[in-house]
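Technical note accompanying the year-one report. For the benefit of new consortium partners, we illustrate the data format agreed upon in the data management plan: each record pairs a sequence with a structure-token string. No post-processing was applied to the example shown here.
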Amino acid sequence: MTMITDAPRIARDLVYATHSGTRMVLDVFQPSGSGTTRPAIIMIHGGRWKRLDKLQYQGEATSLAMSGYVVFLINYRVEGQPSFPALLDNVKSAMRWAAENAMTFGADPDRIAMFGGSAGGHLSALSAVLSRVEPGLPKVRVAVSWSGFYDLIAAYEETAANPRGAEPRGALENAFDGTPATCRDRYIQLSPITHVRADSPPLFIGISSDEVAPLGQAQRMIARMRELNVPCEIQVIEGDLHNRELGPLVWTQTLDFLRRYL
């Protein structure tokens, strides 16, 4: 896939679902030119499952579109509701909408990737593995997760050794409405590692050695996938870079992985 020099065409704030009276929207970044059906990427921003919006990833979405992908950059937050299951329902709705409308934007509905960072990395990995388990979801070909969370109980426990541990523990408690002691089943069911199986899609993980997303739980995810012979790769950057901070350092590897499996 060759780099496109012209800026992508962008369709902004398209409604993909209405949840509890809230219009959920996404932007579509479409490579310039026509006549070619391109692979699609559903991109999910970070923000502790509670903050920020799709503006966070405008630059990355533009770069991906200029690399030849049709990018569906989604908002997922539902105001005034617990984070889960609302956020995951948002992502699933966006996946279905993107598959149903892919051809309108020159995308192939059978070549869909998930891509996210931090909280969005968790949602990317989770929705990807669930796409091979839950009926009605488009099958994801490959997933990318920067600074994501894969084993929520292990992530919660591993933060105890990190000076910044209060930050991710608070985010996890807030997003999942409790601790592993009070809602263990929720932590298990919303952990991507729980749903990995032999036909799970390939996963690329970018993470740094000492950031708020614990490295150990990412390594556990990779180990589990390798046990089942699922293609996967982890790039560990030294330091405490998180999400978009480490993005430029794993960008080339990210694109290589996407090209390989999408």
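Partners are asked to follow this layout when depositing records. The CA atoms of residues 129 and 196 lie 6 Å apart.
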